[in-house]
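Summary for the steering committee. The consortium agreed at its last meeting that each partner would contribute one worked example illustrating the joint modelling workflow. Our contribution is presented below. We chose a case with several input lines so that the handling of multiple components could be demonstrated. No manual editing was applied between input and output; the record is shown as generated.
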Amino acid sequence: MNGQLEIIAQSGLQFFGKIAASISHEIKNVLAIINENAGLLEDLTLMAERGMAIDPQRLKALSRTLMKQIKRADAIVKNMNRFAHSADASLQTIDLNDVIELLAALSNRIAVMRGITLNPQLNENPVTLKTSPFLLMNLLWLCLDFAMGAAGDDKVVELVTQKADANIQIRFKRIDCLAKAALQLFPTEREKRLLELLKAELEVSSENREILVKLAEEV
Amino acid sequence: MAEKVLIVDDEKDFLEIIAERLGVRGMDVSTATSAEDALHMVEKKSYDVVIMDFMMPALDGFKALKLLKQKQPEIQIILLTGNVPQQKRLEAKKLGALDVIEKPPDLKALIQKIKKAKKDHPSVRRKKRQKKK
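What follows is the complete predicted structure of the assembly.
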């Protein structure tokens, strides 16, 4: 049991660390753009003090860039806050659509670095379940990470939420290289322990080129 | 003579402005939004310094650094990064990076590094040695 808990704890920390590192990198990129724009404003001010005319359109463009980057940073921090709060309570009633939307947003930079486009296709109705949001996100991240590694030439991974009769499903689709990927390596002990805790099931189908996760409505 | 600088970053809003600011300060600045483009550019023109984002899509910093060094062994590369652990910094330097600078960069410090990189460029040092002879 201790060994199992260790696996879960280690997996959770690795997941948290990976996402936190990606977020901090993205914020640094935003700060770098704001820093250069502020620097350019300073340059233009110095030029104006020396009697050089400044084109108002130039200032407008700088202002637009600054506002765009502030909005970008705001969205990053909001997502970071939602992610941090996912660990607040062990059980919460959540909408799977929200979880997938957040996971896709948090993973987007990592996906882009790997040349992958994430395409979430959310159910038009809420897909609610009572579960541990953080453990669920950890499990779905591990599936997504594997799916990205086995994506085909078009480099797209679809994330589809569905509500079937008895269970709630999330499908990672268009994983074209599943047959080539070492299927015996997935799911690993980490995913198996998380599946147990979440009372979930996982099916990997190279025929359908997808990973299917079936979740219980209540853990 | 103006320092010939190639800046490589996939963040266009960053790239355009820092290029303009270095240009205003008398540098001859070219830009590329990917490491692949940078690899083509160094084949066509020689640069005193390449300033490159460490984390860009497709080619990661280490791969890009290795390929640039293979093409132009004497090329001087300064890596820009959001956050890089100390171990990766050391690895980058082992692979031939001149320096690793955190974003957002301090422009004055960056300019000093560019000027020093040009001064210390192996070709410049060779010319100096030949003059002495």
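Chain B touches chain A at residues 11, 13-14, 17-18, 20-21, 24, 55-58, 60, 80-83, 102-105, 107 (CB under 8 Å). Chain B has six helices and five strands.
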